[in-house]
């Protein structure tokens, strides 16, 4: 199975009030020290069988195009001989894209850019603490196209405070009109420790109800599919051939290595997470110490439950024969009460080959998927 490499670049020019990722304000000296530590981690990490790279953040393009190109080259230098890398992705803030960034990305081998837009509505952009304009996004897409980067994606968010069905439709329509290859639509999740968490506690009525979120999600499905984007995963829509290979490996319960502060890995049945403390990460990497904050080996039942949860997020669902071969479990027999109940209620469809969420089931995906994880050991 393919191995994915995730690289965390944690610095941002500003901090969005809904974000709970490991991130810090961009300070040039600290960002430079971080790159030095990251290079040290790369040099000591086996990456021979990797097939995808994903630069996430934070705001990866807080670093300039030359720094990203150099980092990409160092990663590729750690891969086996003549291996063909299937995909290299980078997340971008549109207002930070420099004139020559995309050309430098393309020369370095980056094949996919994901532009963090969230909304095209000016008031929603302000509410989210973002600083881009429509022109910034349009320019970023144009620069990527001019550089012949094969895939361009846009992230949008629904359930934003103050968002309406009409404003959501406009954001979707603008994204479609930009003729990008891939569109992700994520429901706002309010995380503890963020400014939004305090806001929601003080003023819960400012946030979208579950009913409104369902309406917005259904609108996204219908509008994007009508425009030629297939929903290949709960939150992701793509034109044919533009599905994100790196994320598809996650959903297939494939192995991945996380590099950088707060990054997660899953290899050899062991799931681990690096420390989220920046100074500890810098010190421990340079001293050659273990940078993991926690690690656990999943027992077979937990691994199987998580594999079902991840696969159900995709349009293909669970390949029953493949699952039996990999985990030694007959899904229909092992999870019979759950499968029967969800199939009876119209949330799951199951035949001799696959088990997948129905369209109705996509609206309760978290609940359906979690039911397989919570089943006790046989």
Provide a descriptive summary of the structure in words.
The chain is an alpha/beta fold and 378 residues long. It has helices at 28-43, 65-77, 101-108, 122-127, 134-146, 165-177, 195-202, 210-226, 245-251, 278-287, 300-312, 320-327, 331-334, 336-344, 359-362, 365-373, and strands at residues 3-9, 11-12, 24-25, 50-57, 87-92, 112-118, 151-158, 182-187, 230-233, 236-238, 255-259, 264-267, 270-274, 292-297, 318-319, 348-350, 354-357. It folds into 2 domains: 3-250, TIM Barrel; 302-373, Arc Repressor Mutant, subunit A. A 9-stranded mixed beta sheet has the order 9-10-8-7-6-5-4-1-11, sandwiched between helices. Strands 12-13-14 form a 3-stranded antiparallel beta sheet, with no helix packed on it. α2 (65-77) links the parallel β4 (50-57) and β5. α1 crosses α10 and α6 runs parallel beside α8 (210-226). The radius of gyration is 21 Å and the shape is globular.
């Amino acid at each position: 199975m393919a191995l994915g490499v995730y690289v965390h670049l944690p610095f941002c020019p500003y901090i969005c009030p809904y974000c709970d990722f490991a991130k810090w304000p961009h300070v040039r000296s600290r960002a430079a020290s971080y790159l030095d530590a990251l290079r040290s981690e790369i040099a000591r990490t086996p990456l021979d069988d990797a097939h995808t790279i994903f630069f996430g953040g934070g705001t990866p393009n807080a670093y300039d195009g030359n720094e990203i190109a150099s980092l990409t080259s160092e990663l590729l230098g750690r891969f086996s001989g003549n291996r063909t890398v299937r995909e290299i992705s980078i997340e971008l803030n549109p207002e930070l894209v420099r004139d020559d960034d995309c050309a430098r990305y393309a020369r370095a081998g980056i094949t996919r850019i994901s532009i963090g837009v969230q909304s095209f509505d000016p008031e929603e952009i302000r509410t989210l603490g973002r600083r881009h304009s429509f022109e910034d996004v349009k320019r970023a897409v144009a620069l990527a196209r001019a550089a012949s980067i094969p895939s361009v994606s846009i992230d949008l968010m629904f359930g934003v405070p103050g968002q309406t069905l009409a404003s959501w439709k406009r954001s979707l329509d603008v994204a479609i009109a930009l003729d990008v290859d891939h569109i992700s639509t994520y429901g706002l999740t309010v995380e503890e420790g963020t400014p939004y968490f305090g806001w929601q506690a003080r003023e819960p009525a400012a946030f979208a109800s579950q009913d409104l979120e369902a309406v917005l999600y259904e609108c996204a499905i219908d509008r994007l599919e009508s425009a030629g984007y297939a929903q290949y995963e709960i939150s992701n829509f793509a034109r044919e051939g533009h599905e994100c290979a790196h994320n598809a490996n996650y959903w297939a319960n494939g192995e991945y290595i996380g590099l950088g502060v707060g990054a997660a890995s899953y290899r050899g049945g062991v799931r681990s997470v690096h420390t989220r403390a920046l100074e500890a990460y810098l010190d421990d990497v340079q001293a050659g110490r273990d940078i993991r904050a926690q690690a656990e080996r999943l027992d077979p039942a937990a691994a199987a439950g998580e594999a079902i949860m991840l696969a159900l997020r995709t349009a293909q669902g669970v390949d029953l024969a493949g699952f039996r071969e990999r985990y030694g479990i007959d899904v229909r027999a092992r999870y019979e009460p759950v499968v029967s109940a969800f199939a009876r209620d119209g949330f799951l469809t199951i035949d001799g080959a696959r088990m997948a969420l129905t369209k109705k089931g996509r609206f309760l995906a978290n609940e359906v998927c979690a039911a397989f994880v919570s089943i006790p050991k046989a």
